[in-house]
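Researcher: I'd like a structural prediction for the single chain below. Treat it as a standalone chain; there are no partners to consider.
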Amino acid sequence: MKKTSFLISSLLILTLSACIDTPPADSSLNVSETPSEEQTAVPTFNPLPSDETEISDISDLVPTTPIEGYSVYIPASEDENISLIMELSNVTSTGLTVKLRQYENRDDCDLMYGEAYSLERFTGSNWEKVSPIIANGAFTDIGYTIPNGGETVTGVHWDWLYGTLTPGTYRISKIITDNNNRTAPNGAAAAYTLTAQFILPGEQTTHEMIPFDTYNTGVYGGYFFIPINDQIYRYYSAPETEHYVTVSDLVFECTEDCITEKYEHYIYELLEYPDLSVLFDVCKDEDGNTLSETFIACKPAEAASQEEIDRAMNSGYVIMENGSVIGGKDVWLDFCEKTTVGESASVRLAYIYTLDAENCSYELFEAIKDDYPALFLKELTFDGDTYTIGPLHYDGEDYSPICVPGYDIPQASWKYLVHFTGEPSVLGALYTEYDRYVLVNDESVEWRDLERGTFSSQMDDFIPFDEVFCEYTWK
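Model: Treating it as a single chain, here is the predicted structure.
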């Protein structure tokens, strides 16, 4: 199956600025031909930040065995003025094989190249020169000819100069001169720079491949349901790949019916994820115009276990199920009594949600049924002046606030905790009375103001709030 191309990157051509000494070129290597099927690099949507960990020894960065990589075609690897293309093979983290091939007979050309080359690494937004591990190195000043209408092959070994390269996206540049073209200043031979790109794959983020128990295939409830090897797997949008990825074979295609419009989804394999835990979705409209290109990752079911629910119930939490308290009300009232008089206090809240098949469409129920019951844990604290609420994570021994390195802790602060009681404002409500506590920054607001702002089509009507406790009197 022919590989599919997306977003071919145009790269800047850089020339070598230093003279460095390298071992002789090795023309006796067993050279494999560049694949005829084109593989194309796709820039990631959010390149990962550089690693800021302090490295005490360069060996910390060097794998014990060379990483096997692969080349990626880019337009800068050929020059039509001299009908020459540079192709890479046998790519590893310590070297590769360069083939210079003149794909047309050019009697007017007398092409030569040397041992010099330059290496650059893509950092996520820029190309930077790879730093040598030795000082004052120099390439041997020797020239090699390229047969007219033929090719020449040479081995490039950089471990002596750059060490073992770490995973990432790289490009190598070589200068070619044409001795029959003396148009350069001072009558020098015209010079052409060819640049080829290669990738050394690193350890990728994988996602557990667990089949999903459903008959759905296609797009439902914001998820992709994709049949693979007679099983169905659920995927969600998750742009998280490192540097470049290579789009390969078509895995699945489907139509998403959005009532007024239909969208075509084409799901492709990525060479960096042979386990298919991450795929690439190309969404097009009915006219074939590309609307979006998104990475999607396998997402197994996320239902809370009964053990997790029991742990929260037996740990002094205030328990709410489907929006109404079912346990720990006395704990909540004790918290409110302390904070009302300005005393510092904290309380932990557990929100449990279940799914009712009778009040849900069949397709949506099939898409999300294994995510229920859902359990969300939060901690609400009061320091005598401000209320702060944030999610909790169980680390195997205790619950603690979620903190992801490099990101802000997802906590929110509020000035007031206000208490509302009353009857439903709409006919057909499933309850007759409510008793709710809400975090706000304006203690003068009424519940009807918050309710109206939530459902209003006018953005200015919305008033920020967070309902943290509620008790319904059910019909």
